[in-house]
Write a structure and sequence with these properties.
Strand content: over 45%
Shape: globular
Helix content: under 10%
Largest sheet: 12 strands, antiparallel
C-alpha cells in the first residue's frame, strides 16, 4: 500500500530587507521595533504553512489546510501578541485513510474538538532570538507553551502586498493533551512554520 507523503505548496517570496545578526549581539536592536499594527495570514495564501511531524514505525508528516495567524505589534516587543487558530479537521498527510484515522477519538477527535489554538501572553527578545510565551489549547486541554522564532525580514509578494516573514520550530508531547499512547506512533510532535504576514 502506498503510504503517501505530504506535498508542500509553499511559495516563499523574495525577502528584500533581510534581518541579520551580523553585528555584535550588544548592537542588535529588536526588529519588531520597526513594526506597528496588525499583521495576518491564513491558509489561502501560498506564502504560509504550518507543518507537523511525528516519528514512529512510519514517520508521519503533514500540514493543515485551514488556519489563520494574527500578529499585533504596538511600540515594542513586550507589547506584541500572537494568536493562531487551526482547523484540526483539515489535517493532510497525503494519505486519506491515515488522515481519517487521525481525526478519530484517539488522536485529534475533531468531531468534539475542531480547533487548535495558541495565544501568547508575552513575547521576549534575547540575543537576536524571539520567544513566544503563551498557551496551547488542544482537545480542550490548555497548557503553557513557549517557542523560539525568527523574524526573517520583509518584501513584497506576487500580489503586490508588503509582508513580514517569520519562521520557527518547536515540539510538544501529544499525550499531555489527552491523545492516546500508540506503540506505532511517537509521543513527540514537532511543529514547523513559515509565515508571510501582511498588514
Amino acid at each position: 500500500m502506498d503510504w503517501g507523503q505530504y506535498e508542500s505548496t509553499l511559495e516563499k517570496s523574495e525577502i528584500v530587507n533581510e534581518e541579520t545578526d551580523t553585528a555584535s549581539v550588544e548592537a542588535l536592536v529588536p526588529s519588531f521595533n520597526k513594526l506597528s499594527g496588525t499583521y495576518s495570514v491564513d491558509a489561502s495564501s501560498d506564502n504560509a504553512e504550518i507543518l507537523f511531524e511525528v516519528d514512529g514505525l512510519k514517520n508521519t508528516k503533514g500540514g493543515f489546510g485551514e488556519f489563520n495567524v494574527s500578529f499585533e505589534v504596538n511600540e515594542s516587543v513586550e507589547s506584541a501578541s500572537i494568536i493562531v487558530n487551526i482547523d484540526a479537521a483539515t489535517i493532510n498527510t497525503g494519505n486519506k485513510m491515515r488522515d481519517e484515522h487521525l481525526l478519530e477519538e484517539g488522536f485529534f477527535n475533531t468531531a468534539k474538538y475542531p480547533k487548535i489554538t495558541f495565544k501568547s501572553d508575552q513575547i521576549t527578545w534575547s540575543e537576536g532570538v524571539y520567544t513566544a510565551n503563551g498557551e496551547l489549547t488542544l482537545l480542550a486541554t490548555t497548557k503553557p507553551l513557549s517557542f523560539d522564532f525568527n523574524h526573517l525580514g520583509s518584501g513584497t509578494n506576487k500580489n503586490k502586498a508588503d509582508f513580514e516573514a517569520f519562521e520557527g520550530t518547536f515540539a510538544f508531547d501529544r499525550t499531555e493533551y489527552g491523545m492516546e499512547e500508540d506503540a506505532s506512533v511517537g509521543n513527540e510532535v514537532t511543529i514547523s512554520f513559515y509565515l508571510e504576514l501582511v498588514k
